Amino acid sequence: MTAMRAMSASETAGPPGLPRLLAGVTSTEAPTTLDEHLAVYGQLPPAGAIDLPGLVEASGLRGLGGAGFPTATKLRAVASQRGRPVVVANATEGEPISGKDKVLVRYLPHLVLDGAVAAAQAVGARDAIVAVSRADREGLDALSSAIAERGGRLDKRVRLRAVAVPGGFVAGEETALIQFLNRGVAKPTFTPPLPFERGVGKAPTLVQNVETLAQLALIARFGSDWFRAVGTPDEPGSALVTISGSVAEPGVYEVALGTPLRELVAIAGGVTEHVRAFLVGGFFGSWLGEHEAADASLLEADLRPRGARLGARAIVVLPTSACGICETARAMRYLAGSSAGQCGPCVHGLDAIARSFERLAARQRLDERKQLARWIAQVQGRGACRHPDGAVGFANSALRVFAREAQLHVRGRCEGERRVLPVPALGVEATR
Amino acid sequence: MKRVRVNPITCEGHGLCAELLPERIQLDEWGFPIVDPEPVTGEAARHAARAVEACPTLALLLEADS
């Protein structure tokens, strides 16, 4: 009961409610320093003091880069391979409508690094690499300074390093990241072997999204019961959600999983216009009509029956002043242009689908919807990575949700000219 | 059980596989194979082996279930 005991790392109480991750943000001007970080969260428990895979399993943590794979399974799979593993923390966040990972590395670099260190210790890795998009100078600076500030003191035998990787949508895909680190080519590879079998320098490699690692850094400190105190039994914890479009205060918010979408919109200042639809889960996600989404919550279990996924928890509110077909056409052109250019079905299929959407958007009075549906079905599952699958899932949701708008376009009419989706320009870097 | 799989990165769409293994492979309109993942047995297995040998980019694979 002494003050000393109460202050020891393993007994530091976690943040009681929300925010959890964002509790460590002390200023929006500068990254949280090491002293500030330790004052909020305390130190990581020593490596031997906890069973991290056990805690992670009990907490139910899943990957937060979009795929949602159980983190404990991945930790164990990497640890069980022969050879000394490597950890790669993925902060590339090529998803144009997501900002959560950039927020984490810019403002909370030490929490990300703690997660990388804890994961490295759990799998027996000596090297942990944080991969950040080349374009994210602020994130790279914050991480490099934070690594220097730690001076290796906190990290026992784990060497930390920040690496700049090419921008673009596909560069952050696991196998593309590995190939970039190995050979300087940021393109996906044919699997197997998967990164957990053979990754950086042929070593078994744990690739985890940086939000997953930040959550893991808190689980290592405060345990699985603490983690589960927020969220639902099946989908526990908090989530960093990026919301943009026609809301008054777009940004990254930390909310409990299970929060009603309506409540998230209110947290983001409420809508600024009448809503036509929501894009849920990023450019790899799905459109949901306003009425379909009205009573939805931020849960996979709630979104799946509606044909959507939470994915990387990025949401755009599309107002009625914008047209779903026109917005989808722009996003599809970006997705087609973001193909790594390696697989025929992705190169030709996505381009054909994008062209068809562009003709529909341009109101050329041709009804190509049957053809489109056929291409969409045909491309599915035929790339080395999941890029074409994500893109056609998105296209498919547009045909479903914007069926009425598509019909209007075939007849030469469009209901909205406004552009809301932040579709990046396709540079050389994005296409190659 | 053996199944046919294509490495889409090395595949250049020569299309020989669809001629040699029509039981499992069709071409899309750009000439790239659409592979039926049903296992190959008997005659189809012999056709599959021949198609794998004939692929100019070694992109067609005959894989045993693990």
Descriptive labels:
heterodimer, A: 432 residues, alpha/beta, Rossmann fold, Ubiquitin-like (UB roll), de novo design (two linked rop proteins), 3 domains, five-stranded mixed β-sheet, four-stranded parallel β-sheet, 18 helices, 9 strands, globular, disordered C terminus, B: 66 residues, alpha+beta, Alpha-Beta Plaits, two-stranded antiparallel ribbon, two-stranded antiparallel sheet, 4 strands
Structure description:
The complex is a heterodimer of chains A (432) and B (66). Chain A is built from 18 helices and nine strands. Chain A is α/β, with parallel strands linked by helices and 432 residues long. The N and C termini of chain A lie far apart (60 Å). Helix content of chain A is 42%, strand content 13%. Chain A has three domains: 3-228, Rossmann fold (3-Layer(aba) Sandwich), CATH 3.40.50.11540; 238-319, Ubiquitin-like (UB roll), CATH 3.10.20.600; 324-431, Up-down Bundle (de novo design (two linked rop proteins)). By secondary structure, chain B is an alpha+beta fold. Chain B has one domain (2-64): Alpha-Beta Plaits. Chain B has two helices and four strands, in the order βαββαβ. Chain B has helices spanning 16-20, 42-54, and strands at residues 2-6, 25-27, 33-35, 60-64. In chain B, the strands form two sheets. Chain B has a two-stranded antiparallel sheet with strand order 1-4. Chain B has a two-stranded antiparallel sheet with strand order 2-3. In chain B, strand 2 (25-27) and strand 3 (33-35) form a beta hairpin.
